[in-house]
Design brief:
The structure is a homodimer.
Chain A: E1 7-8, E2 18-20, H1 44-47, H2 53-60, E3 65-67, H3 70-76, E4 84-86, H4 88-94, E5 99-104, H5 115-127, E6 132-137, H6 141-152, E7 156-162, H7 163-168, H8 170-178, E8 182-186, H9 192-200, H10 208-221, E9 225-227, H11 234-254, E10 260-264, H12 269-283, E11 290-296, H13 301-304, E12 306-311, E13 320-325, H14 347-354, E14 359-363, H15 365-379, H16 385-404, E15 409-414, H17 422-429, H18 440-448
Helix pairs in contact in A: 2-11, 3-5, 4-15, 5-6, 6-8, 9-10, 11-12, 15-16
Family (chains A, B): Belongs to the TrpB family.
Subunit structure (chains A, B): Tetramer of two alpha and two beta chains.
Keywords (chains A, B): Amino-acid biosynthesis, Aromatic amino acid biosynthesis, Lyase, Pyridoxal phosphate, Tryptophan biosynthesis
């Protein structure tokens, strides 16, 4: 075994003090977000009912760096800097000459990268005098993170969880309540949006689109209440760049630079968080990694979607964002990587993809879980279903190196543990997991429902 | 907030290279373990059918230190050295002048301190040519640890889990299988002991005693198979001392010495792991901490049991050990801290307690979960039910300091996370948790069944 340490650690005093905004470093800016009624770019006033001004400013800032407030750094220190691992044991199991590194975000209170943005969002809202945050959650990672973050700044946190997940994943609900959050199954009787759905279908299993509508409705109608979103938007990606900034320092400590970076993409915040600081270095000519997004084959917005203006939610209530999308009416198959079941891709990642700065591949569910089990048995961490997509691509690259003899340096984002996703592993181990075929008809139908926006 | 870091970390190169054996430092040696038939001290040959000679030697070694093999250190590096936290946010929530530190073992692959001994046990067995390990598990922490450790050294691992837990905690079973372990509900049709129980009661919920019998039977009958135990024995406590050795280095880095050390006790391995290296320092006059064991009020072997020779298992198949016991026939109430539901206490801890070197207190379940929720909301980690006992005693001590104004330094062992124990938190938060009264009659009846051993 190598003398190189298994974990490359940073001390708290080495933790980056700034988030990185990639926009000013890109050859062209991303297209503006449009008001769905006027089709004109949205301004701060359009967003003020839902978000505090500090976050609205971060959404459109032209600055390359944004200082992280001390109060946020203090909470980050509960788990940050997060470890970078050299996967000695996985390399040995694969028999590859490649060097594999993974940045592990499962050490956070919620068990994923989500608190990186939940904490500043709670901080800025509390600083603006907000009393309560609302949000939606699907599988529950984001809801857990926001409940924890709210507790740190004395905010109430109210969460609408998609009914089907609420019933199937009781552990998540309890974790949210343990952190002090209030959780409702969605659709609920608490909102007009929820009541409307229940009137039509009392047994509705809910959807992320409905849950968003409920959370937004409550925030919009109460002056002391704001709404928080866990991915997609620029300020969310900004907060996540602390992952990549740390990884840059850690790779430098290890004396290596990545040849290949792979990360999984749902809304895109984890991928951008790791990749954007490295992309800055690449654009500046200081390193030359291949950067590869990995998406689920059943929800492949980058590899099979189109680049067009679309709504962020299923119901069509949000502003229009130019992004890679399968159509806001597209309902992905019920794969276990709930965090990747999103019809669109972050506008900023979509733009970077259009510019040819990153690649994308799609992976099927069973290949991903096979990589997840292999990883658990060698490295001792059971990954969440989402990052098994990154691991599958990582294994593929490492086995390619085994054939060619290349000693490539591969860096991947292990964005969370799978402790609350064990039933999915049970299904895989029992041979009961299926790979859904993507329906071309369903994609065509959803894309036909795209809003019409003149070029 | 203090400038002192939240996490006091050690690099892998600072990790201790030796385990600590407290026996030679005690004013008198612990009483011998006796053969139940002859009532004579057991020798190596009595234990050889179940354990490899390296572990039998460690069980009785007169040496103060035992070198940790390189192969074990390599696996430890997946999560060790574990972090020592300064609980800034808990202190603030309590308004105490006390300084609270906790050593966190939940970062391990199994989520608890158990892999500290599972890894060397698997290593020594593999080195001795053993092909398979068997064990029992209750709640599942130990089974998970041994499954993970076995995978690291190419061993098969077969686990009998108490039927009631097997049915109630499916996540643990899946975690064990993900690490490659084979798990059976106990009683099973696979052993004579299991078949006997099932013949009498086909719906038997099982017990730890039955599960031990099944695992031991398979190990005893197969030359290529050994048995592994997760607590109680000297060599298990020895392996766990890496916790305290690291904590000593970390407290020194922080420039403080503990005034009070609190840890929870079931079989005692986590408590001894943290406390024994500090007790060495105390015996040598280099520091003077009060060392306090915290046990559940419904299973208080130290505070309500007697010090006598008793069997380690319910069925009465093991050698006789002199220990604090409630009687091997005592069945503790079904509290959620499954890891503390053991009728006896490690002989070595019992001996140290008899010598007056440590204190003991008992805590009721609801007080413990209240401390657990308070801890989760301030520190971001949801503790396993077992260490909530230590946290409850920690909170009690910190609030005492608040009254007196004393700035005591409190050190505690947070031996695992509670991700797979969330239903217990759900019960507590819903107000459905009960505190069981300890039945004096049940204890008297169990103590009446103690084996007769002439003084």
């Amino acid at each position: 075994m190598s003398d190189e340490p298994t974990k490359i650690l940073l001390s708290e005093s080495e933790m980056p003090r700034r988030w990185y905004n990639i926009v000013p470093d890109l050859p062209s800016p991303p297209p503006p977000v449009l008001h769905p009624g006027t089709l004109q770019p949205v301004g701060p006033d359009d967003l003020a009912p839902l978000f505090p001004m500090a976050l609205i400013e971060q959404e459109v800032t032209p600055e390359r760096y944004v200082d992280i407030p001390d109060e946020v750094l203090d909470v980050y220190k509960l788990w940050r800097p997060s470890p970078l691992y050299r996967a000695h044991r996985l390399e040995k199991a694969l028999g590859t000459p490649a060097k594999i590194y993974y940045k592990y975000e499962g050490v956070s209170p919620a068990g994923s990268h989500k608190p990186n943005t939940a904490v500043p969002q709670a901080f800025y809202n509390a600083a603006a005098g907000v009393r309560r945050l609302t949000t939606e959650t699907g599988a529950g990672q984001w809801g857990t993170a926001l409940a924890f973050a709210s507790a740190q700044f004395g905010l109430e946190c109210e969460i609408w969880q998609v009914r089907a997940s609420y019933d199937q994943k009781p552990y998540r609900k309890i974790m949210i309540e343990t952190f002090g959050g209030v959780i409702h199954p969605s659709p609920s009787e608490l909102t007009a949006a929820g009541r409307k759905v229940l009137a039509e279908d009392p047994d509705s299993p809910g959807s992320l689109g409905i849950a968003i509508s409920e959370a937004v409705e409550v925030a919009a109608q109460n002056a002391d209440t704001n709404y928080a979103l866990g991915s997609v938007l620029n300020h969310v990606l900004l907060h996540q760049t602390i992952i990549g900034e740390e990884a840059l320092l850690q790779m430098a400590k290890a004396g290596v630079a990545p040849d290949v970076i792979v990360g999984c993409t749902g809304g895109g915040s984890n991928f951008a968080g790791l990749a954007f600081p490295f992309l800055r270095e690449k654009l500046a000519g200081r390193m030359a990694p291949t950067i590869r997004a990995v998406e689920p084959a059943s929800c492949p917005s980058l590899t099979k979607g189109i680049y067009a203006y679309d709504f962020g939610d299923t119901a069509g209530m949000t502003p229009l964002m130019k992004m890679h999308t399968l159509g806001h009416g597209f309902i992905p198959d019920p794969i276990h990587a709930g965090g990747l079941r999103y019809h669109g891709m972050s506008p900023l990642i979509s733009h970077v993809y259009e510019l040819g700065l990153i690649e994308a591949v799609a992976k099927t569910q069973k290949e991903c879980f096979e990589a997840g089990v292999r990883f658990a048995r060698s490295e001792g961490i059971i990954p969440a279903p989402e990052p098994t997509h990154a691991l599958a691509a990582c294994v593929e690259e490492a086995l390619r190196c085994k054939e060619t003899g290349e000693e490539k340096v591969i860096l991947t984002a292990l964005c969370g543990h799978g402790h609350l996703d064990l039933p999915a592993y049970g299904k895989f181990l029992a041979g009961d997991m299926v790979d859904h075929e993507l329906s071309g008809d369903a994609v065509r139908a959803a894309l036909a429902g795209l809003p019409s926006v003149p070029a």
